[in-house]
Structure formats: C-alpha cells, structure tokens
Amino acid sequence: MTSHDWETDALCAQVGGDEWFPESSQGVSEAIAICRRCPAITACLAAAMAEEAGLGPAHRHGIRGGLTRRQRAERARKTATAA
Ligand code: SF4
After folding, report:
1. Ligand 1 centre from 3 Cα, in Å?
2. Structural domains of the chain, count
3. For each of the chain's 83 residues, which pLDDT tens digit applies?
C-alpha cells in the first residue's frame, strides 16, 4: 500500500469539478457533506495536515478531509499548542 492508495476511494475524484473550492457558504456545506460520507476522510485529512504543515489559512486551499482551510489551520494551531 502506498501513501496515496486512499485516493482511489476519494468521493471527490468520482464527483469531480470545482466543488472542493466553493465560493459560497452553501457550496462549503455541500462539499463537507460529501466529505463526511467519504471512506477516505481520515487519510485525506492526515495528508492535508502533513502537506500544509506550517502554513496559515491564506496558503491552504479548498475543502480537504471535511474541513475548510481555516478549520485546518485552526486544527494545526491547536495541535502545535498542545504539543
Ligand atoms: S474527504 Fe478528502 S478525499 Fe474524501 S471527498 Fe473530501 S476532500 Fe475528497
């Protein structure tokens, strides 16, 4: 198993389009709702957090692992604070 095998289960890869880069709050909600049904959500979020390590919200993009860029930045900040 490679570190990206989870991508074959990714619902966003099956849906496609720009849904994971929404410009409206409704679009954010719809993307997150799909993520919450995705079998790859845990691995996806772990990959996002690793790839974005040290970045602020302005340098994170889209919905990944069921979280917005701001939510991921906040999660990273809390994790760093707890360490
Ligand atoms: S959890 Fe990750 S892999 Fe699954 S749909 Fe959301 S962004 Fe795509």
Report:
1. 15
2. 1
3. 466 789 999 999 988 778 899 999 999 999 999 999 999 999 999 999 999 999 999 999 999 999 999 999 999 999 988 87
